[in-house]
Queue: 2 jobs
Job 1
Amino acid sequence: MLPPPDSTRLVTIIAHVDHGKTTLADNLIESNGIISERLAGTLRYLDSDPEEQRRGITMRASAIGLKHSYIPPKISQNKHQNDNSNSGSSSSGSATRDMVIHLVDSPGHVDFAAEVTSSLLLCDSAILVVDAVEGLCPRTHSLVREAYLHQLVPILVINKVDRLCMEMGLDSTETYVRIRELIESMNAVCASMLNSAATEDDDRGLENSVARDAEIDAWNFDPIKGNVVFASALHGWGFTIPTLARSLFKSKTIPMKPPLMRQYLFGDYKYNSETGKVLKWKQSGGGSGEPMFAKYALEPIWDIYEGVSLAATSVGLKSELFVDGGVVQNKKKEHAKIEATTQGMERVLSALHSGSTNPSFISPQPGSDSPLPKTAQDLQRILSRIGAGSESSIVSAVLRRYRPLSDAILDAVCEIGPSPADAALRYRTRALALQTPRSDESAASMGNFNKIQEAVRQCSPAGSDVPTVAHVCKFTSTSRSSVTDPDLPSQSLSSENIILGIARVLSGSLTTEDVEYYMFGPRYNGNDSNTAKQRIRCYLLMGSSFVRVSSVPAGHICAIYNLEDLQLKTVTLCDRKECMPLHGFDVGLQPLVKVNVEPVSASDIEMLERGLLKLSLADSSVEVTATAKGERILACLGEIHLEQSILDLQTVYCDNIKLRISDPITSFCETTDWFENECDFNAFLDDNSPPLRQATIPPYCDEEGLGYACRGRCRTILSGRGAAISIRAVPLSRSVYDCLSSKRLIDGSDDDLVRIGMALGVTRDETSLSASMVLEVLLECLDDIDGNGNALFESSALSIGYSVKGVRSGNGEVYVPQNESSKSEETNNIPHTDCIDEYEATRQFLREGLACTSIESTNNDADEIALQKWSQDMRGSALGGFQLAMRSGPLCEEPVRGVAVILESVEIAVTNCPDGHQVARDLTGGMVVAALRSGIRCALLTRPARLVEGHLKLTLHSSLAGLGALHSVLSKRRGKVVTDAMVDGTDLIQVTATIPQAESFGLAPELMKKSSGEVTAPELVFSHWEVLNEDPFWIPTTEEEREDYGQNLQTGDSSTGLDNNALKYIRMVRNRKGLLVDSSKIVVAAEKQRTLSRKK
Ligand SMILES: Nc1nc2c(ncn2[C@@H]2O[C@H](COP(=O)(O)OP(=O)(O)OP(=O)(O)O)[C@@H](O)[C@H]2O)c(=O)[nH]1
Ligand SMILES: [Mg+2]
């Protein structure tokens, strides 16, 4: 029977990879007797997947329900006491309350960040684990922000405190100082995050001081409040300041009331046990005694470690606890066993007595049989019962009883963490809110919706008129054998696996089979009349197994079967029709690796497609797309994620059919660079240099209309020659783009603005050119910007209609220069002199630049007609053409990035009707789109081409010895180190670097191999786009360059010359896309073959 919301807590464990989340979860699970004491800390129960065990990292979030008997403190200063009073227990003081805690263990590796996001949505409080030695890692920072965004109440666990003593050899006072600093830096991170959130809220005019105060309070870690746990998950011990104060009081170690003692226990205070007074402790004043925390919290634990280590060495064992080993007295005694009476163990016993109390007082567990050993016999009994022989098992057997970690954590969760009801009402108002329905709903349905929303806000328990709402945050797949449900329908027996949704019940009570629930997908907007309706089956989550239950009340987490057919990544369930889906957050996860998947045998295609669909459903961060070419692209967050997904796809979802997986696909973008003399507007116009190299070599020279393009300008002619549009393409730097999108000057953008202003001829008078003026003109002419850093402008001559010319021509065609037009065209196209006039007239406007002011228009009738045609039929399609061109560039059909396109002038052919009227030719929007697309591509081809690469940010820890290998691997892969800093007090160096995505594959194994494991696995996330500053088509031309780079490059691949990175990538992408690749046409080193044969 599941308890009501106020006896329930939903909590997730989050941390950087390997900081000990799963080990911590083991300890909590052990307290429920699900796993044995001996295995806790090493089993990693929640890593149930064999792959997880093999790699030693968590890859899927898994949940488990735990019971805990919680004694609310008598004099609680905690604000939760108010809500506890409902149960009637806190009035009587220390009556035990039976709580149910749903624990969700999340993965720490960035590749599985999506799993963390869904666990954050599911839970109300977060156990934030930080490794005491490694300190705050990059992932810790991002997790703090994400947990804040999801409005969770955090509990900080400083884990692996044992390492400070045993690996780093710090004494208890040094440890205290270090921990204090760690908490301070954690608080600094949180404070700056809250500050920036507050300014954002102010900007948006949100002012909710009560909620903000609560947030500030929750995100301030203060051991006195009990939201900091000091722990060693490996050895099962841990405590908070409130539990420690209670324990020290009970054991009469410090005769001071716990609420008062707490104030001094963690702080620069020392205690004089003779006078019973608390004094200030000064860090710098040597010999001034130890702070209370060091003396009463850490020292007994340190003593136990030392005692056990001493005991081990006394029987001739090598101490494995301390890094420096310990003395081996007698090698023969390798199998000797540490007894309770071994020398050194008395130190353990005395530490237990001097610093503590009977733990049954601190944590009365029902049926607990583990009082603290008082004598050597007691200790021996415990050791033999749990079979503890090795040092670490003895240490954990003793410390687990002395300062039980599970109690410290579970108590803190019950005390600090809000109940689901409290969370919905006060803490997580944004995260647990339903979307608002459209305003045109009828009053009745609005009323019903409000009722549902109120029920969610109150987390109302089941009742006759209470709507049931549940939200499925994610899906997971599991084998049928782990589901305990004899009635599970077996219609889809073809697969061994079923897909279950993981849900949080928001109000009412979810029941198996009885009720049909409406299902709302994340995009539901209220007007879909036939919302899906289904019966479901509910299961409780117990790690890797699922147990069927008939109903799940509000405030609990459960798994739901029978949602697979909906094919939605999140679902909101309700028994009423008027409900709306939950808001949800977009945390902007971006898939980094993509591969193409195809079956080896074509007959398996259907199976593969079904498998891919299931995979993308069960793992929300997997993206599956199909391209026009029939590829099936699988996109994952990182390499490990990809490997795991492919393994799942093959073994779980596709019945082991054979798959062919392509090499990782890297995304590039295309852009362009400035010409050297482009800043000089007039000189650039008059420049008649020959076309750039790429425009002369296949396949790039095959672009239609390339003959009408020159140095970034193209006069693109519509099909049928009814009109021509002159456009220009120039680079648009990121800072200018940012100015345009925010419509204001941004720091550091001045130079770029002035440069583009000069190049576009924004003004006649160049001395008066200023950044703000350029921005003003640009904004005036701006037509559209897209998300990729591109912009479309319309020169002012065109927008007022000056440069729209009607061309009177007998054959209804605009002027097409003979020498430029393609030779195969019919030759009887003798240009009308009129056409040339108009052509020249529009040319004139190009000389005016972007902001035309000086020329007065001499518009005639034909021009009027042309203008009308342009503004009515054509102009609207220009944007379409621009967008189409930006979607794939001319080099390798990758998206274009950082390019500005300017529409400069338009000529439209106008013919005379027999009745004397003039009419423009029939021109459709489609023609404009096509012409503009090819025009922009040609314009780009006649400019210096550049590739843009995605760069990844990489963070890792390395020892000094690993640095050399790290740098050599990075520089080989064109990586750049951004920062490297020593982690305080360790010999670890935290390195941040960027590396091009194309060079990032296989980085982790290579680093591991080259550095012999001296560096940790790198964490890769997307960082930014950066132009690869290499001209893909460059060849040595001058004498000097030939000397430097050699003549032979010309002969190596005579089409493109130097084999540089940019060209390599372009070829790679073209190859993959099945486009024509230059080198494939050319016989490599043909003359060599000839010479060889001659010599024969
Ligand atoms: N010395 C010491 N080692 C610990 C402690 N807690 C965990 N470890 C070790 O740290 C390693 C990682 O532990 P896990 O529990 O798998 O870490 P995790 O945070 O779950 O890792 P991911 O799920 O992959 O992010 C294991 O080798 C543990 O034995 C601790 O308190 N002290
Ligand atoms: Mg783990």
Note: Residues 4 and 159 are 32 Å apart (CA to CA).
Job 2
Amino acid sequence: MRTLKLALLGFGNAGRTFAKILEDKKQEIRENMESDILVTGITTGSRGSLYNPEGIDLKKAWSDLEKQGSFDRNGNDYSQMTSMELVESGEYDVIVEMTPLNIFTGQPATDHLRKAMERGKHAVTANKGPIAWHYKELKNLAEKMNVQFYYETTVMDGTPIFNLKDETLKFCKVTEVSGILNTTTNYVLEELAKGKNYDDVIAEGKKIGFVEADPSMDIEGWDAAAKITALLNVLMEADITPKDVDRTGIEKITIEDIKEADQQGKIIKLLCKGTMKEGKVAASVKPTLVEQGDLMSVIEGTSSVVQITTDLMGKLTIIEHDPDLLQTGYGVFSDVLRIVRNLV
Ligand SMILES: NC(=O)c1ccc[n+]([C@@H]2O[C@H](COP(=O)([O-])OP(=O)(O)OC[C@H]3O[C@@H](n4cnc5c(N)ncnc54)[C@H](OP(=O)(O)O)[C@@H]3O)[C@@H](O)[C@H]2O)c1
């Protein structure tokens, strides 16, 4: 029986859902992969940390956090360790980066991943910042250190896009990527089309959890720009950052624009695109008129879609329907399993 030790940075929605899947599938992993996966460290921003090289009691960890808002300060595994201290000196085989996104720098997540890989540890990230800002450097580092580095959850949760390209579309060259990658703007455009005013749509969206407390990163297209950058960096080796994306948000779209589109049999969607132009990848995020009935026009609410054009497999379309946190947790889980599988 092999034992793989994980250090989790961040134990919010993504971290706890991943931990629950891991616990739930423990026996199946043992039986099918002859492996035990232990979590030896968990850090948070303000709720304390846990550390035990023999393995943390995951059920207690998430139950304490959900019941009392922090880890048990009197528990044996309670620790004051910061994320960087765990990364630099903890006992683990895989770092799992699930801290909040800084969309303009990719930090501190990039530093965590870099330092872990420099120590010869494998790395998984759900945080798209490092892939949007420092992918090439991190990928080269992983190769140099002979460690595995995966990031499936960073775009469309656990939907297999990077996996698909790596494992199933070997030697296919991706020549174009397009998609609807930001669900908040999708929701806002749909609600505006019902004749509601912008402020009401945002207020209602916040209430039901479709819109962030500060929606500007979504509305101004930054989130979509970070996602298309991550996709293009990995699938087309673009080596760009979100600043290189020709970006227009939906903040200036009015009900009149939506009605005019409707009269032409069209619908407005915030479309992300990456194509080759003069040997370089050109990326854009723009409100775009889409024919009603087109595949892109039927992507509603929290669903998202990506279309990949390849030289050998033509155009492929992948839709993620109405995801919730389970898909996020599964994305991280599938990356960890990939590491286990490749070590066998
Ligand atoms: N939620 C999703 O559906 C989803 C989907 C795909 C990707 N992601 C990505 O996954 C990551 C986590 O998302 P989430 O939804 O789990 O966020 P979340 O619920 O806000 O949780 C973030 C966690 O990170 C902790 N944290 C903050 N700063 C930290 C630091 N310096 N070191 C260690 N932990 C730190 C927070 O602790 P405190 O609570 O104490 O601050 C909390 O435990 C983000 O990068 C996000 O973009 C999320």
Note: The chain has two domains: 2-158+325-343, 174-320.
